[in-house]
Amino acid sequence: MHLVIVSGTVFGTADLVADEAQAFAQAAGLQVSRLRTLNLDALLALEPDALLICTSTTGMGELPEPLVPLFHEMRDRFPLLPARPFGVIALGDAAYGDTFCQAGEDFRELLLELQARETEPMLRLDASETVTPETDAEPWLQRFVAALQG
Fold this sequence. Notes:
By secondary structure, the protein is of the alpha/beta class. Helices cover 39% and strands 22% of the residues. Helix 1 crosses helix 6.
């Protein structure tokens, strides 16, 4: 099982969560690639069996700048990913109300439109409740990795 982890962040927190996810998945025996060149061709070249998106939300619910090109390419080129397992870890601040974790929700909806299969409900990490999101993500990561191995 080859898991590709993609992260987009403004202040680095989503990258910390993605790094934790990479270490956790590798320790569980998965082959893991961390995508740092965020474009669709780089993603497809890795031939992932599964995807994990770790994203913060910025402004009024927007994707962080590093993820914008990949998101738009996926939306515009529409590469079907039938039954490809995926998960999304979304970081945000509940103080923003309706746009809390909106970037994660947008990516989740796009992957579902591309016919990928969500293996674990999206994890929403609230910056107003945690200072260690990488640790708070561990129970979700355990379930996600178990589902990929299952």
